[in-house]
């Protein structure tokens, strides 16, 4: 198994979407983990980066209640505001310490990625670029 690390800048943590898209388009059997700090920044201040939370349908695998509000959480990168065209979207689950695992991903290059259907030949860890 290959382990790959990728880094995003603190100025633009939304870079995770292009990193994920690039990696999955060449290695679809990759499991992706995003540092909690990046996910928290995008969840709290996503509008600064054109990233918004949406209530897209959850996967049955993680849907642990009947109202579609449990389990993974969706983040979507748009062309601008909340109602603009979505460029890429991914759902994340907090099933480990310090990282959010990517559950599902969609973009123009990736029609449908679901982590538990994709195999595991590569591990991708996305973190903030270390401060110099």
Shape: globular
- As a whole number of angstroms, the C-alpha radius of gyration is 14 Å
Uncertain stretches: none
Residue share in helix: 10-25%
Task: Describe the main β-sheet briefly.
Answer: 8 strands, mixed
Helix and strand sequence: EHEHEEEEEE
Q: Would you report the number of β strands? A: 8
Q: Report the span from N to C terminus.
A: 30 Å
Number of helices: 2
Mean pLDDT over the full residue set:
90
Name the structural class.
alpha+beta
Beta content comes to 35-45%
Write a concise synopsis of the structure shown:
The chain is built from two helices and eight strands; from the N terminus they run βαβαββββββ.
Describe the secondary-structure layout.
Elements: E1 2-8, H1 15-26, E2 30-35, H2 36-45, E3 51-54, E4 73-78, E5 86-93, E6 99-107, E7 113-114, E8 122-128
Parallel strand pairs: 1-8, 2-8
Antiparallel strand pairs: 2-6, 3-4, 4-5, 5-6, 6-7
Could you explain the architecture of this structure?
The chain is 17% helix and 37% strand. It is an alpha+beta fold and 132 residues long. Strands 1, 2, 3, 4, 5, 6, 7 and 8 form an 8-stranded mixed sheet that branches. Strand 5 and strand 6 (99-107) form a beta hairpin. The mean pLDDT is 90.
């Amino acid at each position: 198994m290959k382990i790959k690390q990728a880094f995003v800048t603190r100025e633009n943590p939304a870079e995770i979407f292009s990193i994920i898209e690039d990696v999955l388009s060449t290695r679809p059997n990759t499991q992706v983990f995003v540092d909690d700090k990046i996910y928290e920044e995008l969840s709290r201040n996503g509008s600064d980066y054109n990233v918004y939370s949406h209530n897209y349908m959850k996967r049955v695998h993680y849907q642990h209640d009947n109202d579609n509000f449990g389990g993974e959480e969706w983040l979507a990168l748009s062309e601008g505001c909340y109602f603009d065209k979505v460029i890429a979207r991914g759902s994340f689950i907090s099933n480990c310490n310090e990282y959010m695992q990517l559950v599902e991903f969609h973009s123009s290059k990736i029609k449908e990625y679901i982590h538990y259907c994709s195999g595991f030949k590569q591990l991708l860890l996305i973190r903030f670029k270390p401060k110099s």
